[in-house]
User: Fold this.
Amino acid sequence: MENVACQQSREYMFSTSLEDLSGADIVAVREVDSEFFNLLNKYGLEEYYLSLTNAKINIDCFKAMTEADIKEIFNDEIGTRIKFRGLVNEWRLANQLAPISTCCCQHTDQSSASGSISQSDSISSFSGSGSSTYKFSLQNFLDSAVGIKICANYNANNELGASDRETLISNIVRDHLEKDVPMNSAMFDNITGDIVKRFASEKKEYYFQKEKRNGKLYNKYRSMSRAFRKSGFFLNISA
Assistant:
């Protein structure tokens, strides 16, 4: 027979969110799987406890969980996916299991490459996974639904609007962060070159200025990667 805590927890899963629970109710929920709840709480994800358990997701699932599973669970909530991956990896390492990686390739240090960004400006210093040979395809992005809309707007106005520029830049950075691929000067230069070839009205210096270490694409990547580093949700795992 199920204990009272389990019965109460299941009722809450279908009827309310964690914010609506009283102190006594939260204690009852914690008693069901205190280790799972405490891990979520440590990473600031306690609000997801009920929805996860309602989906039959618990610590036992960590043994076989993949990056694809995490992406399916949290969809486009990139920050939440990063946090949850860190949570799962902490548990897996503590239980002598290999961590989940977003890429099967081991990261190769690029700090000595010509024109590369310093380690403090690259997620390679706190990611540890991702391929140094990865190449972003602008055309593949422009063939997506979002990319097609950007191209249509450009064709209609003969220029990219501020919103479309931001969307383009954000998607480029997101693509690399999701794959844990650190960007360097050569990548910024190549991607910027592709952009100005496709959109003739665009200026290369708007996106990247190699000598000044500046530009919207460069700054977006640097700000986002620094935010992720400060969050501490990337594990620095050496091969």
Observations:
- The longest helix spans residues 78-94.
- DSSP finds twelve helices and no strands in the chain.
